[in-house]
């Protein structure tokens, strides 16, 4: 049975999904009809952080221009340019057994491409969610539907996988920022 997570809630995958080896992270969103006149492109990115809260090295920042991590564990499965349609708009696969031992946290962020120039923000986005499922059986373990309280934010940390006591956990984060992808890169740079 899939668990619906609220903001900040977490699950212990070793308990809730003990057979999980190859995880799928699905991220979805829909764009409200807007009058900004520009295309609206949201992008999922992944920061693989060491114990010091920084990416292990620049290759552990996985996004549309660097679609897999050096340890072979994280793969970005494709860039949606429109967010059209129900279901996952962008997906990330995570092979939990392959994650480099130095990685303590895998953070999933969604940013709006050229938000500032296009005058766009998450107030124009609805039906946002992150879900975690088994990439082989497609069984879903948990889903977090972000609340509709985002307005001026242009980047949101949707969720994260992290290690605790040798086990993987998944947390619904839902923290928004009025910044772009570069700000995250700067914050987490090794
Ligand atoms: Ca995109
Ligand atoms: Ca969509």
Structure overview:
- The protein is mainly β.
- The protein has a single domain (3-188), classed as Lipoxygenase-1.
- The protein is built from three helices and twelve strands.
- The protein has helices spanning 13-16, 115-118, 181-188; strands at 3-5, 10-12, 22-31, 42-49, 61-62, 74-76, 90-95, 105-112, 125-134, 140-145, 155-164, 167-177.
- Strands 1-10-9-3-7-6 form a six-stranded mixed β-sheet, with no helix packed on it.
- The longest helix has 8 residues, at 181-188.
- The chain is globular, with a radius of gyration of 16 Å.
- One calcium ion binds at residues 41-43, 79-81.
**Based on DSSP secondary structure assignment, what is the total number of beta strands?**
12
What is the element string, with H for helices and E for strands? EEHEEEEEEHEEEEH
Report on the biggest sheet.
6 strands, mixed
Low-confidence stretches: none
Mean pLDDT: 93
Specify Rg, calculated over alpha carbons.
16 Å
Element layout with pairings:
Blueprint: E1 3-5, E2 10-12, H1 13-16, E3 22-31, E4 42-49, E5 61-62, E6 74-76, E7 90-95, E8 105-112, H2 115-118, E9 125-134, E10 140-145, E11 155-164, E12 167-177, H3 181-188
Parallel strand pairs: 1-10
Antiparallel strand pairs: 2-12, 3-7, 3-9, 4-5, 4-8, 6-7, 8-11, 9-10, 11-12
The protein binds calcium ion (2 copies).
Main attributes?
globular; 6-stranded antiparallel sheet; 6-stranded mixed sheet; mainly beta; binds calcium ion; Lipoxygenase-1; single chain; 8% helix; 3 helices; 190 residues; 42% strand
């Amino acid at each position: 049975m899939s668990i619906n997570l609220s903001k900040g809630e977490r699950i212990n995958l070793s308990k809730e999904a003990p057979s999980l080896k190859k995880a799928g992270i699905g991220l979805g969103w829909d764009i409200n009809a807007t009058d900004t006149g520009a295309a609206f492109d949201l992008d999922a990115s992944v920061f693989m952080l060491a114990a010091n809260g920084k990416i292990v090295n620049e290759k552990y920042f996985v996004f549309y221009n660097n679609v897999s991590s050096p340890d072979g564990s994280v793969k970005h499965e494709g860039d949606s340019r429109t967010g059209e349609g129900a279901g996952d708009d962008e997906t990330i696969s995570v092979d939990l057994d392959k994650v480099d031992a130095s990685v303590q946290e895998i953070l999933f962020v969604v940013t709006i491409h050229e938000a500032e120039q296009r005058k766009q923000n998450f107030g124009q986005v609805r039906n946002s969610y992150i879900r975690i499922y088994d990439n082989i059986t497609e069984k879903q373990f948990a889903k977090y539907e972000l609340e509709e309280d985002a307005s001026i934010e242009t980047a949101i940390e949707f969720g994260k996988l992290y290690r605790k006591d040798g086990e993987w956990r998944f947390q619904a984060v839902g923290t928004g920022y009025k910044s772009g992808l570069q700000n995250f890169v700067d914050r987490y740079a090794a």
